[in-house]
Amino acid sequence: ESRETRLRVVLRVRPLTCTETRRGDRRVVHSLGDGAVHVSAARHDATFGFSAVFDAGASQEAVFEGSGMKQLVELAIDGFPCTVFAFGQTGSGKTYTLMGPLTQSETQPATPSLLGLMQRSFAYLLEQSRSRGSDLALSASYLEIYKEQVRDLLSSGPPCALPLRWSKSRGFYVENQLSVDFESLEAIVSLLLQGSQRRRTSAHALNRHSSRSHALLTIHIRSRAVSTSSSGEGPSACPSKQGTLCFVDLAGSERVKETGSSGELSTEANSINRSLLALGHCISLLAKPRGKWTHIPYRDSKLTRLLARSLGGSGITLMVACISPSSHCLSETLSTLHYASRARSVTTRP
């Protein structure tokens, strides 16, 4: 608590797709073990280090166990604001890593082995609550940032824009956002799937289910641990703790020329890229030693405003960088690797 904590950054390399294999793409990213990967291609020969690297053969369970996700859940129960976010090129496996297969629904649940970090974290949260004997009040909110508009994914009716405010005590927050209480794994998974189906997605040349918005699902955890008083006169309530566990699925960076996007898709892509550029700029400045900070431009986009506490404030953050190993995606892969490497130098004060 109040000590500087580095962002934990892990890397996931997805398998080559059938399209990439048919096209004859070469594999240019190779895992070296001990959290290192090597990129070998014409005019590019570089090694990058991370807290952990999950190669193409890694299972969803291996990513959950090896990423530090369990510790993040435990810290959220203890009252800390915790965030995990996935980023990378469109089609690199961000949504799959967080949620599992896109085809799942309430009537067609995913195979347990394919479930993502979110469902596994929900199950671990409820398991920890029972084993600790904590009296937890749990609720969830789910929003998307689409073309710089913040929209609630859990409210009924068509999504409408919500105002983003700032206060000294709360920092940046979304006004009138719906928060739904839940007590079971089925209830929170149902909220996740309902909200995800309302999220903006489109098909283009690189991805049949490309996310066109950034999505943030936040679990609010309020605990009142009950202990026996020293006088033996029965239980006495400890001070309540309020933690959060926020999952951020960033829309993928993309080159409009590569995706063949035009019209509305092109406008969406430009909006996505602008907000990711603002996020990258904030990370670059935060990676400098604290004494060299001038001003961190969180207000440059709605995304950076909502991630301000996670990146440079009092939160604990896990970043999952997702990349393709294909030679065809080399430029975007290198961009993601450089971005993730810079983020390893960012510190917060939980």
UniProtKB/TrEMBL annotation:
SUPFAM superfamilies: P-loop containing nucleoside triphosphate hydrolases. Keywords: ATP-binding, Cytoplasm, Cytoskeleton, Microtubule, Motor protein, Nucleotide-binding. PROSITE patterns: KINESIN_MOTOR_1 (PS00411), KINESIN_MOTOR_2 (PS50067). ATP binds at residues 88-95. Pfam families: Kinesin. Belongs to the TRAFAC class myosin-kinesin ATPase superfamily. Kinesin family. The keyword Cytoplasm applies. It comes from Scytalopus superciliaris. This is Kinesin-like protein. InterPro entries: Kinesin-like_fam, Kinesin_motor_CS, Kinesin_motor_dom, Kinesin_motor_dom_sf, P-loop_NTPase. GO terms for cellular component: microtubule; microtubule associated complex. GO terms for molecular function: ATP binding; microtubule binding; microtubule motor activity. It is found in: Cytoplasm, Cytoskeleton. GO terms for biological process: microtubule-based movement; mitotic spindle organization; spindle elongation.
